[in-house]
Amino acid sequence: MKEKLVITIDGPAGAGKSTVSNALARRLSYLYLDTGALYRAFAYKVIEDGILPGDEKVLAALCARIELHLDNIDGSLNVFVDGANVTKMIRCEEVGLVASRVSAVSAVRERLLAIQRQAGDRGGVVAEGRDMGTVVFPMADYKFYLDASVDERVRRRYAELRSQRGSVDYKKVAEDLVVRDRQDQERKIAPLKASEDATIVDSTKMSVAEVVEKMISIIRGA
Ligand code: DC
Fold it and tell me: Which pTM was predicted?
C-alpha cells in the first residue's frame, strides 16, 4: 500500500461517516479530518454574533475577520474560533442546521477550502464531509460515498442524541434530517453527491466494523 494516502468519505447526515472515518483513521494511523466541524464552528460564530444565516453580505464580512484553525490534541481534532476551543459546543442539531444553511454560501465555502486542503494535502488523512471527493480532494487515492436509508439514518441520529441528552423527540430528529438532506443536496455550490469515481457503500444493514473492513480491503486491494 502506498504511504500517506488521501482517503475521502462523503455522504448524508446520519450515515455513520464520523464513526467510520474516525475508526478508519485510527486503523491506518492517519489524521481524521472532520470538515463538518469547520462548518459547524463557523455556524457557532454566526449564532453567537446573532447573524441571520441567509444574510450573505454579513456572512462574507464574517469570513474576512473570523480566525479558524484546527489542532490535533492527543490524537483528536479540535477546532478553534478566534482562539477559543469550540470542539464540544458545536455538536447540537441547532448548530448542524445553521452549518447546513451557511454552507450554501460561496464566500463561506471558499473561506474554508484552504484550511481543509492545508490539513489534508500532505496525505495520511481520512477526510470526511459532503464535497471531499468532488471538490476539496478531487485527486484523492480512494473515495467512498457512505449512504444508508433515511429510516436507518434517523434511527442512528436519534440514538446518538439520546445518549448525549436523554430526552429527544423522534419526529423532530426525522424532520431536521430531511431538511438537512434537502439543503445539502439542492445547494448550487458543491452539493452533496457521490463523486463519479467513488465507491458507494450502503451501510443500512452493516455494522461500523463491517464498513471499516470493507473499506480497508478495498484500500489494500484485497
Ligand atoms: O457532517 P456534519 O453534520 O458535521 O456537517 C454539518 C453541515 O456542514 C452539513 O449539513 C453541511 C455542511 N458541510 C458541508 O457543506 N461540506 C462539508 N464538507 C462538510 C459539512
Answer: 0.94
Ligand 1 within 6 A of CB of 157: no
Which residue, judged by its Cα, is nearest atom 14 of ligand 1? 130
Question: Which 8-state DSSP code applies to residue 177?
Answer: H
Residue 148 lies in a domain: yes
pLDDT tens digits for 167-202? 899 999 999 999 999 999 999 999 999 999 999 999
- Which CATH number characterizes residue 196's domain? 3.40.50.300
Backbone dihedral region for residue 159 (phi beyond 0: left; psi -120 to 50: alpha; all else: beta): alpha
* Sequence-separated (6 or more) residues with CB below 8 Å from residue 123: 3, 4, 5, 6, 141
In a domain, 221, yes or no: no
| The 31-34 sheet, strands edge to edge | 31-34, 125-129, 6-10, 142-147, 199-202
Which strands, in side-by-side order, build the sheet including 84-85?
68-73, 76-81, 84-85
In a domain, residue 173? The reply is yes
Residue 115 Cα to ligand 1 middle (Å) = 15
Residue 43 CB: number of other CB atoms within 10 A? Answer: 24
pLDDT tens digits, residue range 108-126? Answer: 999 999 999 999 989 999 9
Q: Which domain holds residue 104?
A: 6-209
Q: Is residue 218 part of a domain?
A: no
On average, the pLDDT of the chain sits at 94
Residues of the chain with pLDDT > 70, as a percent, come to 99
Protein residue with its CA nearest to atom 2 in ligand 1 = 36
Q: How many independent structural domains does the chain possess? A: 1
